[in-house]
Amino acid sequence: MDKPTPPSRSRSAFLIPALFLGVISWLLYRNGESWLRQVLLYLSNAGWAREMVSNWSISWRVASRFVAGSDRDAAMAVTRDMNDAGLLITLDFLGESCTNEGEAYQARAEILRLLDDIDQRGLNANVSVKPSQLGLKIDPNLAFENICALVSKASEVGNFIRIDMEDHPTTDATLDVYRRLRYQENLSNVGVVIQSYLYRSEADIEQLIEDGARVRLCKGAYAEPAEVAFPHKPDVDANYLNLSRLLLSPAARAKGVYPAFATHDPKMIDDIKRYIQVNHIPSDAFEFQMLYGIRRDLQEELVKEGYRVRVYVPYGTAWYPYFVRRLAERPANMWFFISNFLRA
Ligand SMILES: Cc1cc2nc3c(=O)[nH]c(=O)nc-3n(C[C@H](O)[C@H](O)[C@H](O)COP(=O)(O)OP(=O)(O)OC[C@H]3O[C@@H](n4cnc5c(N)ncnc54)[C@H](O)[C@@H]3O)c2cc1C
Question: Ranges for the Proline dehydrogenase domain (predicted)?
């Protein structure tokens, strides 16, 4: 598998990362995990931190646990192996918040080639895209045109595009792109993502059920203010289960809704399993989704139990924000990062 060449690190470059990680560890010890999560989410967006951390070889060593490799060939190889283990895949060409049209077109060109490669190699994989990578923050019409080209191509080769959901200022524009594809362009091979941390999500899901949409339900990965999102995790979890019920309701199933439950949380997964068993919902009426590099044991266990499991496999060189959000979700991963650094 092709992995990006790790950046080289001189001895003199040891001090800055050591200091940085030392300060983070000390602050974590003093202030606790939820504080660290906020700091990491801030760092995931900070250009200066991206420049610094991307140049440490140790960063790639840890990030590569969550990223298939730097190019399509690496992603194809991982997909083949995981398909052989009974896992379905959704591939993500890493990148977000492009700053000019050219970058958005480059991402679109890469994803078009990706759809061809999946088709030619007969892989069981669909594709997830980030609207901001395709121009949403520059001009929603630019993102619409790019995503429309991708969904049209996917339709030609019998594939499916999932539009990932990003931070809350993009929610309306993202759902608007989705609706235009469904109703203006009559494309049905496209789905969206709803985040249980947002207060608005129940209303969005009710609307999407009316549309018979393919919805991925996740908890949400961005730093959001209390004006728009539940600040406390137990509320986010309770809403996740509430929304899962709506997506599995007889009304939703009658409309043809096909939900994807994206979580590594055993409590959510066990609860959904219990609910579908009690309500005699067939295991092919929905799927579980998890991220590459996280709980592979649980992914394979669910496959053995007869559930559909799709793994989100990112590839590319723009791994920094994706990687730091993964650290924020599980601050214990910081220790993995620090211990790798100390061993280097
Ligand atoms: C396939 C997929 C697609 C996603 N797409 C989006 C998207 O489009 N937009 C968006 O905002 N977010 C997305 N996310 C991220 C999601 O919103 C959460 O931030 C992320 O999944 C963490 O929440 P959780 O439910 O997995 O677990 P958490 O609520 O973070 O943790 C609950 C429990 O899950 C287990 N767990 C969680 N993480 C790990 C880990 N790294 N290793 C081991 N155990 C762990 C632990 O037991 C933990 O106690 C996606 C996630 C997945 C899996």
Answer: 79-334
